[in-house]
Structure of Dihydrodipicolinate synthase/N-acetylneuraminate lyase:
Amino acid sequence: MDIIAPIITPFRSGKVDVETFINHAKNIMKKGVDALFVAGTTGLGPALSLEERKALLEAASSVTRRVIMQVGFLNLYDVLALVKYAEKFDIEAVASVPPYYFPGLSQRQVAKYFRELCAATSLPVYLYNYPAAVGRNVDAEMAKAIGCLKGVKDTNPDLAHTLAYKRLMPEIKAYKGSDSLVMAFFAVGLDGVIVASANYIPDVLVKIRDAVLRRDVEKAKRLQFLINEILEVATPLGYNSSVYELVRIFQGYDPGEPRPPIYPLESEEREKLAKAVSRIKEALNKL
Ligand code: FW2
């Protein structure tokens, strides 16, 4: 069961800071992250240009071959250009959100999009299903009907929804993306988690996985609850922005800033987060 980081994209004065990205990737992989999900939601993928995503792909590939590259854009031409570029690297897979924003697409058109992606590459193609963000759900039945998907990253609190992919397509990889339920995803034997907290507390996720494998449910639960306490403070401040600050707090370095409209936290918000998290940090260190 893998711990996969939807890695943040560090910006400085509006530009992607590739060096910080590489250093961050190396650090979290040293601490137990198994693979990188690049240009996902936490990586602010939809806010990145084609050229920026190419640079991140190259940077991630210089750190590990275990890269899943999120290639969804609002137009197919950029998608295919990035997929073609990804072919140059020995990476694990490309993933895409379904076509988004436009509510008028038919199921046939959405399926056609994924089939075109599969036809364009010899790399495995994964579905990144995130209905709350994308406004469209590609459930297990539809994913199966598409016929060429090799994996799914399901971001959706409904565990049964994710298990259905595994039931209908036992051969594909199924990952889940909700920080508040990591222990449950390990307990039901999914292929792993792709969660933002892998950016700031990869070691805690490793401990949860170890505890679940040892069947130490109590310990897994105590660790999980501490993550959930972090989420309770961070979410109202803007979780995407807070992740940068949480990296600073837990990993002790400057990970750059997000890109507006994902605004960096303001100083009072940073103080509030740091204060609330210091007690949680102590409790995590004791476990
Ligand atoms: C990503 C993920 C994880 C998210 C989830 C929601 O790309 O950020 O879907 O943690 O914030 O895969």
User: Anything to note?
Assistant: The domain at 2-286 is CATH 3.20.20.70 (TIM Barrel). The beta strands are 2-6, 11-12, 15-16, 35-38, 67-70, 93-96, 125-129, 151-154, 173-176, 192-194. The chain has a mean pLDDT of 95. The pocket of L-2-keto-3deoxy-gluconate is lined by residues 6, 37, 40-42, 130, 153, 155, 177, 179, 194-196 (CB under 6 Å).
